[in-house]
Amino acid sequence: MKLGLLARKNAEGYAFIFPGMAYILALLGYPLVYNFILGFRDVDVRTFRSGTDVFVGLRNYIELFGDSTFRLILRNSFVFTFCCIAVQFTVGFLLALFFSRKFTLAGPVRGLVLIAYMMPMSVTALLGKNMFGQIGVINDLLNKIGLVTSFPMWLADRTMAMAAVIAMNCWVGIPFNMLLLTSGLTNVPEEIYESASIDGANAWVRFWKITIPCIRSSILAVLMLGFIYTFKAFDLMFIMTAGGPLNATDVLGTYSYRLSFTEYKFSMGSSSAIVLFFCLFVIGLLYLKMSLSEEQ
Question: Of these four, 99, 103, 205, 228, which has the most CB atoms within 10 Å of its CB?
């Protein structure tokens, strides 16, 4: 009797999760598997229309990693990601420490900071394109305070274009880091700090011996999620710079899009997307491993 009741409850549970699983498999699973298949075949406009594509094994990946442009774009992806994470986490952590203190208007000011995170990335990209344009707000302010006499073209310079997209991504990422770290800080009991103060621990010792260990899981989540969200960036570069100038702001997402839908090299675009997938897959496995270690 109990086994029958348990089996019926399990069947009901599977019935409830089946629509969601079917949705995921149809809209995510099938494209992912098909993308893997394309990466091992020679598919372009000609072979796609005629259906004469052939299996080429690892040739697409060998050509991809042998291309100096792809190696530059892979480096851009990691440089963009690590620079954004360093800035976002540092500033977000400082803001979280600031807003974790109780003072007047802490809540409203923190809500205003979160507005940047609530905006769609496409809107942020358009805003950044206008701000860093030759007649944008940045040049206007620098000209008014006398730092520049001419209007530099920030998005046409290779170094400054990357700095511009990093700045706009951090503008969105800092509130996200602050929000998660603030929730971790609020869960640290005040009694621990009081006991440490009575024992003679100064603010620096309390920070390293109490705050950091207590919010280690939040820090781990922020860093890993920040890496995943930043590494797969697409719309910010696509709208602000279109990957230019001279591939200076091209990342794996924009490069895969250009190969597939601009140059119509479907197999090469799929191979680039699979490289992006494996990078994120490794980070995801690392996050799961570290999370399990934290729980134990």
Answer: 99
DSSP secondary structure code for residue 29 in this structure: I
Model confidence pLDDT, tens digit, residues 146-192: 777 777 788 888 889 999 999 999 999 998 898 888 888 888 888 88
Residues in CB range of 256: below 8 A, 6 or more apart: 269, 270, 272, 273, 276
Longest dimension (CA), the chain: 86
3-class SS at 250?
coil
Q: Which CATH class is domain 57-295?
A: mainly alpha
User: Cα–Cα distances in Å, from 43 out to 27, 123, 209, 294?
Assistant: 22, 35, 57, 45
Residue 158 makes CB contacts below 8 A (sequence gap 6+) with 245, 246, 248
**Per-residue pLDDT tens for 205-249?**
888 888 888 888 888 889 988 998 899 889 899 999 988 888 899
Report d(CA 290, CA 13) in Å as an integer.
Answer: 30
What's the rounded Cα separation, in Å, for the pair 29 and 10? 24
* Angstrom distance (rounded) from CA 129 to CA 125: 6
d(CA 276, CA 294): 27
Could you give the C-alpha distances from 259 to 50, 78, 124, 266, in angstroms and in order?
Answer: 20, 20, 25, 7
Sketch the domain layout of the chain as residue ranges.
57-295
Mapping DSSP to helix (H, G, I), strand (E, B) and coil, where does residue 176 land? Answer: helix
Encoded amino acid at 143, one letter: N
- Candidates 236, 110, 224; CA nearest to 178 is 110
